[in-house]
Design a protein that fits this description.
Layout lengths: L13 E4 L7 H8 L4 E6 H4 L2 H10 L3 E8 L5 H13 L4 E6 L1 H16 L9 E3 L3 E3 L10 E5 L10 E5 L6 E5 L7 E4 L1 H4 L4 H20 L5 H23 L4 H20 L4 H11 L5 H15 L5 H10 L9 H19 L15 H8 L4 H4 L8 H10 L1
Parallel strand pairs: 1-10, 2-3, 2-4, 4-7, 7-10
Antiparallel strand pairs: 5-6, 8-9
Helix pairs in contact: 4-5, 7-8, 7-9, 7-11, 7-12, 8-9, 8-12, 10-11, 10-14, 11-13, 11-16, 12-13, 14-16
């Protein structure tokens, strides 16, 4: 790849990471020049100390709380949230929670700006190689994100929303949707179960891995991916072993933040395409799907991305100097499997409660996910995807 053959997204984004960083929320609101915040979260998060502290610190600037976010979010939820944003005259959206909260905030911002129904604004992919992005030109409300997981959804300009009518995951992209402010608070994160953080951190590791072999990879995304993987391979097991250690939590949050920067520029491939559909159709959490699928997806791409996977092995501390790219790539897959063990995350689809009968339908839906456009290996039929899913079963 020539140095001139890439574009790096650098949205206006400020990340605040510090112990008890939540105290900075009122200052960040004031700096943005906004006055009426719609706080967006799920039911469980609405009962957390973190959410209560955030709302209390906003004071009169909290115009309303929308607590109807569900896992993977849904088009109906987005429509309800946009209605409340209009009614409360919100001029900023504050997402508190995991990836679904951030994605819901982004989708609400799309709907408020672009009008119509949210389905109108999704991108479209026709296998094996036709991608039709939907250009969203209008200015968007600023978003402040307070993430409670390692999904990194708060960093990226992309999002996915489930269509409950079809079970499909609708995908969107607009650089104006990336959070203007991200507040990473490792002390507040202690309230989040370590198992949830570990599973979502496998999603962050997947961002780094797929960024290295993405068709849009570039020198900047490569550097971010290597360093993100280097942090996560140590921070995830350390956090699982000592869940009350604030510094381990900080390491996971920092690695996830870097991983979001990776896919803001390099995008994701077949691994995330499969995981989108395992969630939308199979009901798996995105973290669990990522935890199971990652080594299998890397193996799927091994024959076309051996050099890039060898780079992943090196970033994870596996010394492959003097070995072939193929051997280095295999070492990366083995290192990911070892990380699964150390993180104590699910390793087989059969252990997740997924209905095996859904696998053919999930494979068919994956075929239409835009992740396949950015994957280094083209996939023209559902057969190879079904084989991938069966291996993960």
């Amino acid at each position: 790849m020539l140095a001139s053959d890439y574009h790096v997204n650098s949205p206006l984004q400020r990340c605040v990471m510090a112990r008890n960083a939540l105290r900075m929320l009122p200052i960040e609101v004031e700096t943005l020049g906004v006055r009426r915040a719609l706080v967006i979260c799920g039911k469980k998060t609405s009962q957390s100390r973190l959410l209560q502290s955030a709302v209390a610190s906003l004071g009169p600037a909290c115009a309303a709380v929308f607590d109807r976010v569900v896992e993977h979010s849904e088009t109906t939820v987005v429509t309800e949230g946009a209605a409340l944003a209009r009614e409360s005259q919100a001029d900023v959206l504050i997402a508190v929670g995991g990836g679904s909260a951030s994605d819901t905030a982004k989708a609400i911002a799309i709907l408020l700006a672009e009008g119509g129904v949210i389905e109108d604004h999704a991108s479209r992919f026709v296998p094996p190689d036709q991608f039709f992005p939907k250009l969203l030109h209008r200015p968007k409300l600023p978003i402040i994100a307070i993430p409670t997981t390692a999904s990194a959804a708060e960093v990226t300009p992309g999002l996915g929303i489930r269509d409950p009518a079809t079970g499909a995951k609708l995908l969107f992209w607009d650089v104006k949707l990336a959070s203007r402010v991200i507040i990473l608070d490792p002390d507040a994160n202690l309230e989040v179960p370590a198992a949830l953080m570990a599973a979502t951190a496998m999603n962050a590791m997947a961002h780094c891995a797929e960024g290295l072999y993405s068709r849009l990879r570039n020198p900047v995304s490569d550097a971010l991916a290597r360093h993100g993987a280097r942090i996560l391979v140590h921070a995830i097991p350390a956090m699982v072993h000592e869940p009350d250690d604030v510094m381990h939590r900080a390491g996971v949050l920092a690695g996830a933040n870097l991983s979001g920067m990776v896919i803001s520029n390099a995008r994701v491939g077949i691994h995330h395409a499969v995981c989108h559909c395992l969630g939308a159709l199979g009901g798996l959490s995105h973290g669990v799907a990522n935890s199971v699928m990652l080594p299998h997806a890397l193996a799927y791409n091994l024959d076309v991305a051996a050099r890039e996977l060898a780079d992943l092995a090196d970033a994870m501390g596996v010394h492959t100097r003097g070995h072939s790219d193929q051997a280095g790539a295999q070492a990366a897959i083995e290192a990911i499997s070892a990380l699964q063990h150390a993180a104590r995350v699910p390793r087989r689809l059969r252990d997740t409660g997924l209905d095996r009968a859904l696998l053919p339908r999930i494979a068919e839906h994956t075929l239409r996910d835009r992740g396949l456009y950015f994957n280094p290996k083209r996939t023209g039929s559902a057969g190879p995807i079904l084989e991938l899913l069966e291996r993960a079963w």
